[in-house]
Amino acid sequence: MGAHRHDCGGTCILPHLVWRLFDRQSPIAGLFLRCAGWVAGADVTIIGAPVRRKALYIANHISWLDILALAGQTKCAFVAKADMKPWPLIGWLTTSNNTVYVEREARHAAHHQANALQTALTSGQPVTLFPEGTTADGSTLLPFRSSLIAAVTPAPDDIQIQPVALDYGPIVGDIAWVGDESFGANALRVLSRAGRFPVRVHFLAPLSHADFADRKAIAAHSRAEIAAALGLS
Fold first, then answer.
1. What is the DSSP string of 97-137?
2. Is 9 left (phi over 0), alpha (psi -120 to 50) or beta?
3. What is the pTM of this model?
4. Which of 184, 191, 178, 176 minimizes the C-alpha distance to 86?
5. Which of 218, 224, 223, 205 minimizes the C-alpha distance to 49?
């Protein structure tokens, strides 16, 4: 592995645990995730202006690296599949960063999950939703599921929706975590590759839920904006 693979997170863990001991949002989790992204080889560039508070980021999904890139730059929480919770290290960190875990196929729980998302949003911390529901290979966008967008339709007027395009450029196929590849196998493959790689995070124009007829319209508009930013159809 390249010379950039150093452990830069050890000094972050103890302060993070102290903050969590007092049940407060830790500023360390975002720093740790940013550092972990750098260790993995990601050079993250922000394009546009992220909404820093009371925002729902709607993003495309390529890899577990998306979490490191987004949270490392914005300290956002996430909506994530419940089976991510036991992942080594990343599951613990995202739990500590107030992740909202959902059972995507549990239709009976959709109302409860939307309420949990709205509670997270009104706390002030931005929250990222990956509406594709899984990772894609970067050559196209999968359909956007709109069920959890119900948390912001309707919503308090100060909640903004911001589409976010994650762009890994020409190496996206080497980074994408798709198919039957396990998390461990993908992580090993990414961490073993030589050299660094760019990740461009495009924060697109924020949306107001009041400008759309329903959650499906928000999902469709967000998908179109992200596709345009990535040059996809």
1. TT-EEE-TT-GGGHHHHHHHHHHHHHTS--EEE-TTSS---
2. alpha
3. 0.83
4. 184
5. 205
Domains and CATH numbers, the chain: 10-230 (3.40.1130)
> Strand, helix or coil at 207?
strand
Q: Which residue has the tokens 């890899």?
A: 63
Looking at residue 210, its amino acid is A
CA angle 10, 11, 12 (to 5 degrees): 90
Q: Are 98 and 19 in contact (CB under 8 A)?
A: no
Q: Is the peptide bond before 154 cis (omega within 30 degrees of 0)?
A: yes
The whole-angstrom separation of Cα 215 and Cα 13 is 38
| pLDDT, tens digit, 9 for 90 and up, residues 9-51 | 444 444 444 334 334 455 666 777 788 888 889 999 999 999 9
